[in-house]
Amino acid sequence: MKKLTISFLLALFSVTIFTPTHVEASWLSKTWKKVEKSWNEAGKQSSTTGTSSTSSSTIRLPQRSEYPSRYNPGQIVGQRPDMQDLIIAGVPVGAQYSEIRKALGEPTEERMYDPFSYTGPNTFMRYGGIKYSSLLGNLDRADMITIENRDAVTHRGIAVGDSLEAVFKAYGRPTHINSRNDWFYGVFIWASDAKSGITFENDGEKVTKIRIINS
C-alpha cells in the first residue's frame, strides 16, 4: 500500500514540475498530510487487530485468592525484611521518641502517654503525613510508622498514590494478601501480634497508606 502511495506521489510531483507557476503552492503539503493521516490510521487499525510488531504487555498482579485465608496457629510466615526497608525519613521503626525528635525536630503534632487519660495510651509523633506510633505498651518508642500522603517514600521509592504495579516491580510478590487486600512484605506469626515488615494498603489499583511495623 505504501509503495503504491509513494509511486502515486512521485507521479504527482512530476506533474507539478511542468505545471504553470500559478498552481497553489501548498497543494503538495496538503497531499502529504492526507497520506500521513491515512498511514497513521492504518497503523492504529493494525495494532488493534494484533498485527503490530510491538505490543505492550501488562503485568499480572498477585490476587487475594492465591493466598491462604488462614494458617496453623503459631506458624511463621515469610522472612524478616532488610533493616533499610524499615526506615522512613531516616528514622527506623522502633526508635525512641527522643531520638525521633533529635533527628526530625519539633513534630507538627504529638501525644505522649498520659496515665490519667481515660482513652488509654495513644502515644505518637506526627511530622506532616508521617506518624510514629507506640504499640503493645512500648510507650517510649515508635514500633509503627504510618505514611498517609506523599510526604515520604519507602527505601525502594514507593509513595502513597503509586500503583500496585509499581509496588510489584519494587518488592516482588507479597508475603501475604489479607481479606482487605493489603499487601504485606516481611514476616509474621499467625494468630499473634508478632509482625515485622511493611504493608501497602490500597484501593485495588493504587496505594492509599503505608505501614511499617516491628512488634
Structure description:
The protein has helices at 2-17, 27-48, 97-104, 164-171, and strands at 76-78, 87-88, 91-92, 109-111, 124-127, 130-133, 144-147, 176-177, 183-189, 195-202, 207-214. With 215 residues, the protein is an alpha+beta fold. The longest helix is centred in the first third of the chain and has 22 residues, at 27-48. The N and C termini lie far apart (68 Å).
Key words describing this protein structure:
single chain, 215 residues, alpha+beta, nine-stranded antiparallel β-sheet, two-stranded antiparallel ribbon, 4 helices, 11 strands, globular, disordered N terminus
Helix content: 25-40%
Would you report the number of β strands? 11
The sequence of SSEs as H and E is HHEEEHEEEEHEEEE
**Major sheet size, sense and barrel closure:** 9 strands, antiparallel
Average the pLDDT over all residues and give the rounded result: 81
The stretches of 5 or more residues where confidence is low (pLDDT under 50) are: 1-29, 42-56
Structural class: alpha+beta
Q: What is the count of DSSP helices, taking H or I runs of 4+ residues?
A: 4
